[in-house]
């Protein structure tokens, strides 16, 4: 408190009283408390000095002893205060250290009672702390030109306000707001917006700097970011399906990735040209950082033309708001089809290699690449006893559209099989995009073969004689097995060390049954290897596998010499003969090409593959002199005795060619011996089994309803004529059609593989006149769906009428006593593996001659646009069936023709396939020959009929044996 100075004065009236005569110093406030102040910050407090007396108050001095630099006194300029006046002092507190500071402010006055006025001054120096959250700023990957903002939260966790100085260092691609000196209230918070705007690719870095007090250390908040070209990456941006067969489909995929560190909004995904052949499932929404989505694109061409479209992907990307995916494809290309669906090798002796043909068909259409087989594998289990006999490196398989190639598959067991036999799967790998692998089950069983006693090679050597330089020839030989045991021939080839002028087609394995023979040929061709004149030797070798690998060999000799005699032609080729219907002659003219006469020696036939097969019919008497330029003829007679390839060398000796005569190879092939076996089945009248094979590909969408509308004709006509009719339906789908999404009814999804429709037996599958609501059931059964694409009408028919289906899934449909009618209905030609004749032979073997008929409702030409069904038309003609157009608006007339043919009364006679010779015919029933009185042969009409009471019961098969007439 201030001190009052009093003066005692005399006052009148005789009394004494006290009178104040000095200034009184009063201070307010009584103490200065600065509280908590941040280091380096300055806080100012005011102190008032008041003169509370009547006399002037003199302020003689101001000080804060020991204050150092923390407290600073700023006195008022007035040092004398009259009564009632006030002087204001300013005290500034600037702490330089963290400490509690206490001082005394002293004011010197003329107040006698308290000449030194003391006012306590206190303050606390504290170090301010501003906490940045987060401690670092990682912007991650940001698309060029797209600013990305991150908030930086600054928190003052003291109860005093702080003024923080914000700045930044580093890459100018970063910026922030606010910046500079920014106040933060006590226990307050502020947000600073930091922006990364990349303008170049690559890594960027910097720091946000904070100074929370003037003498505080700088605090750094690291900043990092990466500039990227675009946030949304699509791979690939072009999808080329290349060639895909019509009505098939192929799938490709592309990925859409957010490679940035921030979400990308996908706003739309649409095809630009809306081509229905390209389909996919779009996505809209948020693609999170680092997220990748895969999209499946399907291409299903409907015509053999190029197709194109784009998928436009729209997003909130500033740099690439729309990314297109280019779609390309073409209708056409390879479509694999393999026949048969399984390979059963049967019993094969150990040491032999059984072989079966596998027909690979390219059912695709041109234009487009060929079907290429890229690998064969054996799996389930992997074994070496099965395999393809084809080196794909030395002999690549490339099959143009609409053609086939036969590949031999081998089975070479090494030990006796158990009761289950040997089994594996052949995997065929191709460039068929929709069906890259085809699996074919294989089976076989092995047995130990008895020892082969011997083999006889005829002739024992092959003497080619000599040819003019650059010319060569071919001779044949036979390998005969004279014993009852089979002989396994292995590795027939030209032996090592032979002159390269000799060649043959190597045979790795061949079984020669007892008392049978094997014929083969060897060629002499010096020109092929660039050999000149000279003498050549070699050897053909082979081994008997079941005779301790006994080796057999045929010596080979030949010469290439230039003589005077020249033969025209230089090779007598009789071609082929159908049977032993007589002999034929060929003539060769021999000319002396030298300027002098030549002495012609013996003319004779060398060792023949079958002795007596060829004879010389005409020749001049030798020896004789032949003048320069003169000629003579030699005629050779072919006796057509032994089936197979037969050859002999015709030798002509001349001066200078006494060791190796001029050779004219003689060759002829007898195809058969004329014996014929015709098989027939005795059918029951008015009994018919009818199989409809219906195309279930997509292009049948407008034809199946026509079929449904007309199918009732079959039942109506059968009822009218009293025919006991079975009608079944199957589809052209034989193998699984990969990639298809359409669903077909019936339980097999279009892969009936010969099974009657519907496979799930949801309706009766064999429709008869007695089937409840038969007409409706048959109409429904013809609606097989539109889900398949590989049309195999003929193979589906064969499977439906063969084991194991005839006694399994299709049991009860095919009756021995019924005649058979097959109806193929489709708008695309058949792509089965075997030739049409194979399937007509199958029907003939099943029902005998005249017991079956194949009909076709197909593309027949001008009025259709799908392509003529040549194979199905050929098959129908081979069986005597009807052919109608699939493009007719009404199938009723076609079915009436089919019914008329199928339900016609059976003839009482059986027509033979060939006219017999004069030796007549022999009829066998159940292996027993019937007496001549049991049948009649009408030679004029070439038909057989049974005598009254001698006909076998319905369903019985019988055979007619005879030798066909020469020239037929």
TrEMBL record:
Keyword Zinc among UniProt keywords: no
Organism name: Vulgatibacter incomptus
Taxonomic lineage: Bacteria, Pseudomonadati, Myxococcota, Myxococcia, Myxococcales
Major location (coarse): other
Keyword Cytoplasm: yes
Pfam family, one: HYDIN_VesB_CFA65-like_Ig
Coiled coil: none
First and last residue of the signal peptide: none
Domain Abnormal spindle-like microcephaly-associated protein ASH: 27-115
GO cellular component terms, semicolon-separated: cytoplasm
InterPro entries, per the entry: ASH, Hydin-like, HYDIN_VesB_CFA65-like_Ig, Ig-like_fold
Name the record gives this protein: Putative lipoprotein
Keywords: Cell projection, Cilium, Cytoplasm, Lipoprotein
NCBIfam families named in the record: choice_anch_D
Record domain HYDIN/VesB/CFA65-like Ig-like: where: 234-316
Subcellular location: Cell projection, Cilium; Cytoplasm
């Amino acid at each position: 408190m201030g001190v009052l100075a009093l003066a005692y004065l005399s006052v009148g009236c005789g009394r004494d009283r006290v009178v104040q005569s000095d200034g009184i110093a009063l201070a307010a406030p009584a103490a200065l408390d600065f509280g908590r102040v941040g280091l380096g910050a300055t806080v100012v407090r005011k102190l008032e000095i008041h003169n509370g007396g009547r006399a002037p108050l003199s302020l003689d001095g101001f000080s804060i002893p020991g204050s150092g630099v923390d407290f600073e006194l700023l006195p008022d300029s007035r040092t004398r205060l009259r009564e009632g006046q006030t002087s204001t002092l300013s005290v500034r507190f600037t702490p330089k250290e963290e400490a509690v500071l206490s001082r005394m402010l002293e004011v010197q006055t003329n107040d006698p009672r308290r000449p030194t006025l003391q006012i306590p001054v206190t303050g606390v120096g504290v170090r301010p702390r501003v906490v940045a959250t987060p401690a670092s700023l990682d912007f991650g990957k940001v698309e060029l030109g797209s600013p990305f903002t991150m908030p930086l939260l600054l928190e003052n966790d003291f109860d005093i306000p702080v003024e923080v100085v914000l700045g930044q260092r580093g890459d100018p691609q970063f910026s922030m707001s606010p910046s500079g000196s920014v106040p933060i209230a006590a226990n307050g918070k502020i947000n600073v917006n930091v922006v990364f705007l990349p303008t170049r690719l690559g890594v960027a870095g910097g720091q946000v700097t904070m100074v929370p007090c003037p003498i505080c250390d700088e605090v750094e908040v690291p900043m990092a970011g990466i500039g990227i070209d675009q946030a949304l990456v699509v791979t690939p941006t072009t999808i080329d399906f290349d060639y895909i067969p019509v009505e098939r489909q192929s799938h490709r995929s592309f990925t859409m990735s957010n490679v940035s560190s921030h979400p990308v909004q996908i706003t739309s995904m649409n095809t630009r040209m809306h081509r229905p052949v390209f389909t996919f499932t779009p996505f809209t929404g948020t693609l999170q950082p680092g997220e990748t989505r895969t999209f499946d694109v399907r291409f299903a061409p409907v015509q053999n033309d190029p197709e194109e479209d784009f998928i436009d992907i729209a997003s909130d990307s500033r740099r690439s708001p729309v990314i297109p995916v280019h779609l390309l494809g073409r209708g056409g290309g390879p479509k694999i089809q393999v026949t048969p669906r399984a390979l059963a090798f049967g019993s094969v002796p150990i040491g032999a290699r059984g072989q079966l043909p596998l027909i690979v068909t390219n059912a695709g259409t041109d234009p487009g690449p060929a079907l290429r087989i890229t690998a064969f594998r054996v799996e389930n289990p992997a074994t070496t006893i099965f395999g393809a006999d084809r080196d794909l490196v030395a002999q690549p398989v490339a099959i143009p559209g609409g053609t086939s190639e036969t590949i031999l598959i081998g089975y070479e067991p090494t030990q006796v099989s158990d009761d289950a036999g040997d089994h594996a799967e052949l995997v065929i790998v191709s460039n068929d995009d929709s069906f890259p692998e085809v699996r074919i089950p294989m089976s076989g069983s092995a047995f130990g073969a008895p020892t082969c006693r011997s083999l006889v090679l005829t002739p024992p050597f092959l003497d080619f004689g000599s040819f003019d330089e650059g010319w060569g020839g071919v001779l044949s030989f036979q390998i005969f097995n004279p014993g009852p045991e089979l002989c396994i021939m292995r590795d027939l080839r030209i032996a090592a060390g032979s002159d390269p002028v000799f060649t043959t087609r190597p045979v790795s394995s061949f079984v020669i049954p007892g008392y049978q023979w094997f014929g083969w040929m060897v060629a002499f061709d010096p020109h092929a290897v660039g050999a000149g004149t000279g003498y050549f030797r070699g050897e053909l070798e082979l081994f008997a596998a079941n005779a301790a690998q006994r080796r057999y060999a045929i010596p080979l000799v030949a010469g290439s010499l230039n003589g005077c005699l020249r033969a025209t032609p230089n090779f007598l080729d009789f071609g082929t003969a159908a049977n032993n219907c007589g002999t034929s002659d060929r003539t060769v003219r021999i000319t002396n090409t030298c300027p002098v006469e030549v002495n012609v020696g013996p003319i004779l036939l060398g060792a023949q593959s079958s002795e007596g097969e060829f004879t010389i019919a005409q020749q001049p008497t030798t020896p004789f002199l032949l003048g320069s330029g003169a000629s003579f003829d030699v005629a050779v007679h072919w006796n057509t005795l032994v089936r197979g390839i037969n050859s002999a060398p015709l030798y002509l000796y001349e001066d200078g060619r006494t060791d190796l005569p001029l050779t004219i190879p003689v060759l002829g092939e007898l195809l058969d011996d004329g014996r014929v076996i015709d098989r027939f089945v005795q059918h029951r009248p008015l009994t018919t089994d009818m199989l409809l094979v219906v195309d279930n590909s997509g292009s049948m969408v407008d034809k199946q309803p026509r079929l449904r509308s007309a199918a009732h004709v079959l039942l109506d006509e059968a009822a009218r004529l009293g025919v006991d009719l079975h009608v079944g339906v199957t589809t052209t789908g034989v193998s699984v059609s990969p990639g298809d999404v359409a669903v077909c009814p019936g339980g097999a999804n279009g892969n009936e593989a010969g099974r009657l429709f519907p496979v799930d037996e949801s309706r009766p599958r064999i429709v008869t006149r007695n089937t409840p609501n038969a007409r409706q059931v048959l109409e429904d059964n013809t609606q097989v769906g539109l889900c398949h694409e590989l049309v195999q009408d003929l193979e589906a028919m064969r499977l439906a009428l063969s084991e194991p289906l005839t006694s399994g899934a299709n049991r009860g449909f095919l009756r021995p006593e019924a005649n058979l009618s097959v109806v193929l209905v489709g708008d695309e030609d058949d792509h089965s593996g075997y030739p049409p004749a194979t399937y007509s032979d199958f029907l003939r073997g099943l029902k005998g001659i005249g017991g079956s008929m194949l009909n076709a409702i197909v593309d027949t030409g001008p009025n259709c646009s799908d392509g003529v069904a040549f194979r199905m038309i050929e098959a129908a003609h081979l069986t005597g069936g009807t052919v109608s157009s699939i493009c007719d608006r009404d199938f009723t007339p076609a079915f009436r023709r089919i019914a008329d043919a199928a339900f016609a009364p059976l003839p009482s006679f059986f027509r033979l396939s060939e006219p017999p010779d004069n030796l007549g015919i022999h009829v066998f029933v159940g292996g027993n020959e019937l007496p001549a009185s049991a049948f009649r042969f009408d030679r004029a009409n070439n038909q057989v009929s049974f005598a009254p009471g001698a006909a076998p019961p319905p369903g019985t098969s019988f055979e007619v044996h005879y030798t066909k007439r020469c020239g037929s």
